[in-house]
Structure formats: structure tokens, C-alpha cells
Amino acid sequence: MSLEIRDASRADIPGLVADMRGIDRLEARLTMGNKDLHEVMQVMFDRSDVVRTGLFGGRIATIYGRAPVSVLGGECMPWLASTTLIEKPSVRTCFIRHTKTELHRLTDGFVLAWNLVHEKNRLAIRWLKWAGFIFEEERIPVNGNAFLRFSKSIPE
């Protein structure tokens, strides 16, 4: 099987939410005011100008995108939420192969990409480091949990 990456549709949201990784559920609830996960994903779609879905064997593995923060300042916030399927090594390997192309799609037209990740989201942190993001040492408290700020300067 191979990974298919395509533009996301709001119809993908139920498939993501039904099998979302626990740490992604926690991040969403902590950063979005404990809203229903369907509503959280609707908000992410609303805020984003690029949203993509990664499918493996026809099943949703991940939905990710970018939310412009400051078009004039050239900043965007990449985000990603995954199902438990992404935890399988074969799926992760396929996703990593597509990372460079997809990362360019997420950062094109911006000079800085940044966001926060829960300090216990080891899979996301490993992928972000592999993709060239750097992490600040300081922990940022969010509703009693520690988050890390990551960023990447984008060459023009």
C-alpha cells in the first residue's frame, strides 16, 4: 500500500476524529478551549488556506494544514492531527517520504512557520526536528500542560 496525499475535505473530519491519537486529542482540547473535536477541526479548516489529507490504504492517517498568522509579517502556523494509523512504521515511512514536498506547500509564500506542540507528543516532535524546525527551551504552560514552541525560517 502507499500513501495518497490530496486536498482535504470537511468530509474527512469524522474519519480523523473517530481514530485520533490521544495526544492529538489532548492538544486540540487544551489549545481550543475544550471544544468538541469535530468543531475544533472545523475551526482549523476555517483558519487555514491549505489543508491536506494523507490516506493509507484508503484510511485517513493525518490531516494537516497551515493557518496564516500575519500575511504582511509573513508568518504561518503549520498544524497536524493524526489517527493511530500514523503510529505504524510503514505509514510513518511513507509520510516522511512526502514531507519535503508537502512542507514546501505549507510554507510557500511565508518567511516564518511556527506553532506549539505538547511536550509529550514525541512522534510530532521527532518529525518536526527531522523537517528542520527548531525548538525553544522554555516550556509554555497551556491549561496546566507544558508545550514547546517550534519554528522554522523559510528561505525566499
In short:
With 156 residues, this protein is of the alpha+beta class. The chain has helices at residues 13-18, 22-31, 37-47, 89-107, 122-130, and strands spanning 3-7, 50-56, 59-70, 75-82, 112-118, 134-142, 145-153.
Which SSEs are present, and which pair or pack?
Blueprint: E1 3-7, H1 13-18, H2 22-31, H3 37-47, E2 50-56, E3 59-70, E4 75-82, H4 89-107, E5 112-118, H5 122-130, E6 134-142, E7 145-153
Sum up the structure in keywords.
156 residues; alpha+beta; seven-stranded mixed beta sheet
Biggest pleated sheet: 7 strands, mixed
| Number of helices in the DSSP assignment | 5
Bin the strand percentage.
Answer: 35-45%
Describe the strand arrangement of the main beta sheet, using strand numbers.
Answer: 1-2-3-4-5-7-6
Rg is 15 Å
**Class by helix and strand content?**
alpha+beta
Spatial separation of the terminal alpha carbons? 36 Å
DSSP strand tally: 7
Helix content: 25-40%
Described by the principal axes of the CA atoms, the overall outline is globular
Mean pLDDT: 92
User: Low-confidence segments, ≥5 residues, pLDDT <50?
Assistant: none
The arrangement of helices and strands along the chain is EHHHEEEHEHEE
Describe the structure.
The longest helix is centred in the middle third of the chain and has 19 residues, at 89-107. The protein is built from 5 helices and 7 strands. It has a 7-stranded mixed beta sheet with strand order 1-2-3-4-5-7-6, with helices on both faces. The protein is of the alpha+beta class and 156 residues long. It has helices at 13-18, 22-31, 37-47, 89-107, 122-130; strands at residues 3-7, 50-56, 59-70, 75-82, 112-118, 134-142, 145-153. The termini are far apart.
